[in-house]
Design goal:
The protein is mainly alpha-helical. 82% of the residues lie in helices and 0% in strands.
């Protein structure tokens, strides 16, 4: 009966080598026997052979350790190295592409330097023109607003006096003239023509008044109230020039295109124009129709007064 080996006497080196396969103990035994016989024949050679055999047997063990030691961490480490190599290669490619593109741009600018400079200069000039034009228009508007305020203040001051001050009216007119000439495309210049018409009427210069009002009507300001004021004052100017037919024509146009108080006021003006033209029957007919159509009008008393005056003749 074979003698059992004591497990405590086994060497650590032998126990690590038994992890490869179940056939390994037999191989180890034969190796031990051959090694002992070789030891008897030649101690030096047997020692060398034993070292060689140990290296050969240790090689698979060491390869197995390198394969499994890293596990998932080892795989990730290898992939990380590959990724780093890939990133480095991409960076290199991008740098090369950037250098190549930069070189092409430099070559292009060198070959067409004059053309590029001309285009760049034109763009800069255009930009400066746009910016300066904006500043110029802004300063123009500010100046026009300032002049308009001064002229209107003088106009209001002149009308506050009884009779209106001729000198103050002319001072206002002078500012409105410069405003209309310097900034004729602005709103202030258009309104300046409306005020000029009123000033000329107060100065009894009716032809100039009509001219100023027509300039306002031809402007870009299309405010309905201002337009009716201008047309009505043109009609008044014609009346003062004793051109009643033109005055009647204008007042008819206003009344046919108006409503509310403006309509009522224009009908009263039309009746008065007929009276001035010595066409009293037409004037009386307008007044009587007014009483029927607008019995609650604010102008009803004035219309009734005109009827009474005409019937008393």
């Amino acid at each position: 009966m074979p003698k059992k080996e004591d497990p405590k006497k086994k060497s650590p080196a032998k126990s690590t080598r038994t992890t490869k396969s179940a056939k390994q103990p037999a191989a180890a035994k034969s190796t031990t026997e051959s090694a002992s016989s070789a030891k008897k024949k030649s101690p030096v050679k047997s020692t060398a052979k034993a070292k060689t055999a140990a290296k050969k047997k240790a090689a698979p063990k060491s390869r197995a350790k390198r394969k499994t030691a890293g596990g998932i961490a080892g795989v990730i480490g290898e992939e990380h190295k590959k990724a780093r190599k890939l990133k480095v290669s991409r960076k290199t490619i991008k740098k090369d592409e950037l250098k190549e593109a930069s070189a092409k741009i430099v070559d292009y600018l060198t070959a067409r330097g004059n053309t590029v400079l001309i285009i760049a200069g034109a763009i800069i000039v255009l930009f400066l023109v746009v910016v300066l034009a904006g500043f110029y228009r802004s300063s123009q508007r500010d100046r026009a607003s300032e002049l308009f305020g001064k002229a209107r203040n003088l106009y209001d001051l002149a009308l506050s006096e009884t009779p209106p001050s001729t000198a103050t009216l002319k001072g206002s007119l002078e500012i409105f003239d410069s405003l209309a000439d310097l900034y004729e495309s602005g709103v202030e210049a258009s309104l300046a023509n409306l005020y000029k018409g009123d000033i000329y009427m107060n100065l009894q210069e009716y032809e100039k008044a009509i001219e100023s009002y027509n300039k306002f009507l031809a402007s870009a300001v299309k405010n309905e109230t201002y337009q009716i004021i201008a047309k009505t004052n043109i009609a008044y100017s014609y009346e003062n020039m004793e051109d009643y037919d033109k005055a009647i024509e204008l007042l008819k146009d206003i009344s046919s295109n108006s409503s509310g108080y403006i309509l009522e006021s224009s009908l009263l003006d039309l009746g008065l124009a007929y009276e001035l033209a010595n066409k009293e029957p037409q004037a009386l007919a307008i007044y009587q129709d007014f009483l029927k159509d607008y019995p609650t009008s604010q102008l009803i008393e004035r219309v009734q007064e005109r009827i009474n005056t005409l019937q008393a003749k």
